[in-house]
Each structure stands twice: as structure tokens, then as C-alpha cells.
């Protein structure tokens, strides 16, 4: 079977993919840096705390819309880059890790065993993967409500997107194998 792309087109396609990959990698690194440095401290001012929670809800809504948009794009455009969806998955995980950690900082009675950002990330990841070792647990009603939202988001946005990414990668690998034969 003859390859339908000329050498120039292949070279152009290869160059175009590298910047996409670099862009998504830098976005992931930036998300991890933001996760590591965003200030979360116990705030005595209730007004500031309410504003932070409102901003968090807006961020979660924007992230949900962005992930949905990228998922629909993947279904409509088979060759669309997967990077934005991967960044969305990481952003969702890190946002919930910050939410869990922030709740533990502001209301320490809500969680048992969640004392650091790493604990928050560990807990968010174990919740996403449903492994829950029991070393970190939600004790308060607020933490349990947050976890219900987190689990619903994990099932719909993150797990659905991860499944879509895996399926698209497998499909692209099969297509690439057929072209190489």
C-alpha cells in the first residue's frame, strides 16, 4: 500500500505535532507548579473564604465545560490532538487535590490523615482510582459532600475522558500500523 503523504507533508506534520506535545507538556508542568505554590492557609475572614469557594466552583464549572468540549471535539474530529483532554484530566485531579487539602486546612475536623498537599493529591488520586486504602478519610459532612461531587466528576469527566484518550490512542496506533504495512 502506498503512503498518501509526501515527504514534505510528513515533515510538516511531524513539526506540527512537536509544538502541540510541548505545549501540553508545559501546561501540565504549569498546573503542577500552581498546585504546589497556590496559597492555602486558614483564613479568619469568612468573606474571603466564601469568595475562594465561589472561585473554586467557577473553576470546576469551567473545567467541566472545557473537558466536555474537548471530548466532543475528539468524537467529531478523529485526528484532533489529545493533549488538551489530558491537561483537563490532570487539572481536574489537581483541582480536587487542592479542594481536599484546602478543606482540611480550613476545617481540620473534616478529614483524618490529610495534612499536606501531597496527602491531598494522594487522596484525590486514590478517590479517582477508587482504591481508598483507608489511611485518609472524610470525617465531616462537608468533606463527604465534597467527595460526592468529586466522585461524580471523576466518573463523568475524568474517567470518561481517560477512556476516550485510551480509545483514540489505540485507534491511532491501529491506523498507523495499517499505513506502515
From TrEMBL:
The chain crosses the membrane at residues 20-38, 50-69, 81-101, 145-166. The keyword Ubl conjugation does not apply. The keyword Ubl conjugation does not apply. Keywords: Ion channel, Ion transport, Membrane, Transmembrane, Transmembrane helix, Transport. This is Potassium channel family protein. GO terms for biological process: monoatomic ion transmembrane transport. It holds the Pfam family Ion_trans_2. SUPFAM superfamilies: Voltage-gated potassium channels (SSF81324). Gene3D superfamilies: 1.10.287.70. It comes from the Bacteria. Residues 95-167 form the Potassium channel domain.
Amino acid at each position: 500500500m502506498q503512503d498518501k503523504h509526501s515527504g514534505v507533508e510528513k515533515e510538516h506534520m511531524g513539526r506540527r505535532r512537536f509544538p502541540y506535545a510541548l505545549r501540553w507538556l508545559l501546561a501540565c508542568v504549569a498546573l503542577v507548579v500552581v498546585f504546589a505554590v497556590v496559597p492555602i492557609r486558614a483564613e479568619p475572614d469568612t468573606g474571603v473564604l466564601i469568595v475562594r469557594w465561589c472561585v473554586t466552583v467557577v473553576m470546576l464549572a469551567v473545567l467541566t465545560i472545557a473537558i466536555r468540549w474537548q471530548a466532543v471535539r475528539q468524537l467529531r474530529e478523529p485526528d484532533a490532538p489529545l493533549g488538551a483532554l489530558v491537561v483537563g484530566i490532570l487539572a481536574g485531579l489537581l483541582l480536587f487535590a487542592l479542594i481536599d487539602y484546602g478543606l482540611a486546612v480550613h476545617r481540620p475536623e473534616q478529614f483524618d490523615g490529610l495534612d499536606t498537599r501531597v496527602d491531598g493529591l494522594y487522596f484525590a488520586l486514590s478517590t479517582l482510582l477508587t482504591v481508598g486504602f483507608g489511611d485518609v478519610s472524610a470525617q465531616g459532612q462537608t468533606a463527604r459532600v465534597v467527595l460526592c461531587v468529586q466522585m461524580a466528576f471523576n466518573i463523568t469527566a475524568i474517567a470518561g475522558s481517560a477512556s476516550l484518550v485510551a480509545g483514540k490512542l489505540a485507534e491511532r496506533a491501529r491506523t498507523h500500523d495499517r499505513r506502515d504495512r
